[in-house]
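dumping this here so i dont lose it
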């Protein structure tokens, strides 16, 4: 591509690099100039213009952007995504429904390493999105790029973006109480709102005493594809009340604890074929916590292993939740803090 100042007499068919004023308005940058445009520019007194002219082996920015977007998402409907060309060398890739973004970061890095003019920006891998959310944007920075570079970028990023939709649709939440007056309404409402974002329905309120036997009985009676436990007293060990109740119900505990704060006191298990998540106390708040990351992946059909959970530490220092406003400082990790984890 050739770029630079050019006499107006040679401007026809070239791309206007910068917006310029003419009688009655402006010609916008990126416009391919026709004979009438050149005449209007000359009448406005322009003698020299900054222009871009594509070589025979160059691809226009808009065509390059859509080609790369189609390489990243060759079957948009199957991938749960929509391609939205917006001009000026940009195509936005948006979510067709709720779910988790799934991408291969190494491939995105490879695309962005081909040519500085070819760029893809994405959301982080496995982040939850709502319908219509922008998942990625393809932007060709210059007015055209070499066809060979574009082909290399398309190859590097082939089929690297998709949306994982929810596969579980029905959840049961069992809460425990340590005081007779505890009704569990807040925990139920907050959990229902969390699940609703992914189209998951929640069973009616279920609150039992904070004891192994009644909790195990409630677990056996739960009908949901996903079972959640939210205890009135923090789960402080893998053999505490809730994990033991899961074992007594015939289930297994696969992991306890996570390096995400808030969210440390989560546990993960299985009851038959159904996943069971022991929610940390901070899940009573709508604020983001570690349980969200596990819950969203399970709902969208991903297997969550202990290794996956222990890899969440980088980026796992989350914003303080409203129910525990004090920052974490040395010496403040007392029993009050532990109950909120």
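and the seq i came up w/
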């Amino acid at each position: 591509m050739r770029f630079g100042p050019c006499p107006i007499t040679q401007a026809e068919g070239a791309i206007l690099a910068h917006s310029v004023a003419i009688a009655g308005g402006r010609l916008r940058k990126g416009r391919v100039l026709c004979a009438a445009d050149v005449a209007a520019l000359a009448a406005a007194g322009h003698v020299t213009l900054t222009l871009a002219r594509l070589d025979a082996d160059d691809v226009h920015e808009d065509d390059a952007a859509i080609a790369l977007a189609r390489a990243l998402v060759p079957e948009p409907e199957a991938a749960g995504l929509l391609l939205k060309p917006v001009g000026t060398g940009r195509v936005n890739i948006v979510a067709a429904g709720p779910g988790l973004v799934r991408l291969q970061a190494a491939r995105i890095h490879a695309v962005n390493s081909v040519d500085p003019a070819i760029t893809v920006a994405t959301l982080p891998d496995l982040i939850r999105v709502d319908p219509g959310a922008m998942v990625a944007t393809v932007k060709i920075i210059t007015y055209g790029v070499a066809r060979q570079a574009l082909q290399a970028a398309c190859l590097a990023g082939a089929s690297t973006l998709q949306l994982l939709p929810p596969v579980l649709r029905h959840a049961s939440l069992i809460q425990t109480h340590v005081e007779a007056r505890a009704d569990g309404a807040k925990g139920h409402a907050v959990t229902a709102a969390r699940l609703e974002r992914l189209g998951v329905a929640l069973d009616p309120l279920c609150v039992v005493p904070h004891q192994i036997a009644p909790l195990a009985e409630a677990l056996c009676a739960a009908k949901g594809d996903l079972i959640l436990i939210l205890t009135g007293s923090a789960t402080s060990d893998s053999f505490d009340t809730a994990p033991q109740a899961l074992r007594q119900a015939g289930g297994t505990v696969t992991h306890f604890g996570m390096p995400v704060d808030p969210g440390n006191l989560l546990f993960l298990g299985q009851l038959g074929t159904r996943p069971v998540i022991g929610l940390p106390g901070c899940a009573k708040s709508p604020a983001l916590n570690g349980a969200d990351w596990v819950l969203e992946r399970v709902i969208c059909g991903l297997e969550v292993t202990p290794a996956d959970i222990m890899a969440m530490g980088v980026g796992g220092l989350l914003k303080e939740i409203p129910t525990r406003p004090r920052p974490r400082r040395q010496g403040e990790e007392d029993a009050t803090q532990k109950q909120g984890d």
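The mean pLDDT is 93.
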